Amino acid sequence: MFETVVIFVAGLGILSILGQGKCEEPLAQPVASEQNRERDMITIITCRLVVPIIQIFALYVIAHGHYSPGGGFQGGVMLGSSFILIALTSGLPDALKRISQERAIFLAGLGVLIYAGTGLVCMALGRNFLDYEILHKLMGGTGVKA
Q1: Residue ranges of the alpha helices (H) in the chain?
Q2: Is the pTM here over 0.85, yes or no?
Q3: CB < 8 Å & 24+ apart, contacts of 89-95
Q4: What is the pLDDT of residues 24-60, one digit of tens each?
Q5: Contact by Cβ (8 Å): 54, 81
Q6: 3-state secondary structure of 31
Q7: What angle in degrees, to the nearest 10, is found between the helix axes of 2-19 and 72-90?
Q8: Residue 54 pLDDT
């Protein structure tokens, strides 16, 4: 639980640093040669093909982390890496069009609240914090272990 809070606070710190990075003068653009444009186009097209695959696999790792290696942290790292890849190839403004900083903060906070809320529900049902075994009563399951 506290690892999640630490990662959430680190993410808030990174987003606040990115928000402070307003440049008054535009950065000097490199001279665009035909070879540089071709290399950029190859990178952009490759990322457009690879990013959806990375994101689908990340969601798979998150969803099936309790049955196979992986879990929320590893899936979250892959999902975050896909957005970093978009920002590196297309630029930060294009990445922020896909998910704004406000939405990212909201979703991260919501995730921490859901995680903590699940632990509190377990405690309210008479078990330890984040002891998921009791949740079958709420989910309508039989509670039989596989």
Answers
A1: 2-19, 34-63, 72-90, 92-98, 101-124, 136-139
A2: no
A3: 89/43, 89/44, 89/47, 90/44, 90/47, 92/18
A4: 544 445 555 555 555 688 888 888 899 999 999 988 8
A5: yes
A6: coil
A7: 10
A8: 93
Q: Name 21's Cβ contacts closer than 8 Å, sequence gap at least 6.
A: none
3-class DSSP assignment, residue 133: helix
Q: How far is CA 56 from CA 39, 52, 59, 63, 145, in A?
A: 26, 6, 5, 11, 28
pLDDT of residue 27: 46
Give the span between the Cα atoms of 52 and 109, in whole angstroms: 24
Tokens, residue 72: 């929320």
Torsion angle, CA of 74/59/95/82, rounded to 10 degrees? 50
Instruction: List the structure tokens of 143.
Output: 């509670």
Residues 84 and 77 sit within 8 Å (Cβ to Cβ)? no
Q: Which residue has the tokens 């950029």?
A: 40
Residue-wise pLDDT tens digits, 59-114? 888 888 766 666 777 888 888 888 888 888 877 777 778 777 788 788 888 888 88
